[in-house]
Amino acid sequence: MTNYLFTPPVQVTAPIKGSDKVFPVRRIYCIGRNYADHAIEMGHDPDREPPFFFQKNPNNLDFSGSFTYPEKSSNVHYEMELVIAINKGGRNISVENALDHVFGYALGLDMTRRDLQGQMKKMGRPWEIGKAFEKSAPMGEIVPASEVGHLSEGPISLKVNGELKQQGDLNQMIWKTAEMINYLSEYYELAAGDLIMAGTPAGVGSIIKGDLMTGNIAGLGEFNITVV
User: Fold this and answer.
1) Secondary structure E strands in the chain
2) Measuring CA to CA, how many Å separate 187 from each of 87, 91, 183?
3) DSSP reduced 3-state for 136
4) Considering the entire predicted model, what is its pTM?
5) Which residues make Cβ contacts (< 8 Å) with residue 128, sequence separation at least 6?
6) Which of 91, 124, 147, 227 is the most buried (most CB within 10 A)?
């Protein structure tokens, strides 16, 4: 028995649709500006330049159906995203073999303290204070690829209080699922339990307490997240 100085945290897990098993989460990689229209609305060139990633922490995930408005921010944005769940890792994974490493897909939100992120951008500092905070990654259950197939096209959308705010198609992703896995595996050793948040279409905006966010991706259904 390991003699820990203090009790280690409980392993973060994600639910799997139709299973009593759960998915143990290791790392969360998030790609930035992976839809051309979102890149434009954020003031960037949408041309296909090398992708870039930042990370959230496993304990930023939340499956409660609510999002707690964070302190130290007055401009919190929603970003609706496809989440890719990896169940087989490796290095230098080829594009041709990359989808063999995907267990399934889920709905996710990359909640962002946009004001704090903007401050960090101006100062040339990392974004984590705007991205990797408590409950900043609401997520739905993982749907196995064996059930839904590999999602490469289909609508992705987000409504706030019933009003459509974000609407796009998975086929608009600049870097596709296999390409993201290939690129990441050249810089990191991917492993079972890793998640990839695949970017957001245009239409990001702020929320306030009491708002109801409804996300939808074709093949995965929808989830509802209440801002509290």
Assistant:
1) 13-15, 22-24, 28-31, 53-56, 61-62, 66-67, 76-78, 80-86, 102-109, 112-113, 137-138, 143-144, 155-160, 163-169, 195-197, 205-206, 212-217, 221-227
2) 18, 8, 7
3) coil
4) 0.94
5) 54, 55
6) 227
Contacts of 153 (CB under 8 A, 6+ apart): 169, 170, 171, 218
Q: What is residue 185's DSSP assignment? A: H
Domain covering 13-153+170-204 assigned CATH 3.90.850.10 in the classification:
yes
Tokens representing 180 are 């993201």
pLDDT tens digits along 1-58:
789 999 999 999 999 999 999 999 999 999 988 987 655 555 566 666 788 899 999 9
Residues in the chain: 228
By three-state DSSP, how is residue 5 classified? coil
Burial of 91 (0-12, 13-18, 19+ CB in 10 A): exposed
| Sequence spans of domains, the chain | 13-153+170-204
The set of residues, in sequence order, having a beta carbon less than 8 Å from that of 121 and lying 6+ positions away, is: 127
User: Is 181 strand, coil or helix?
Assistant: helix
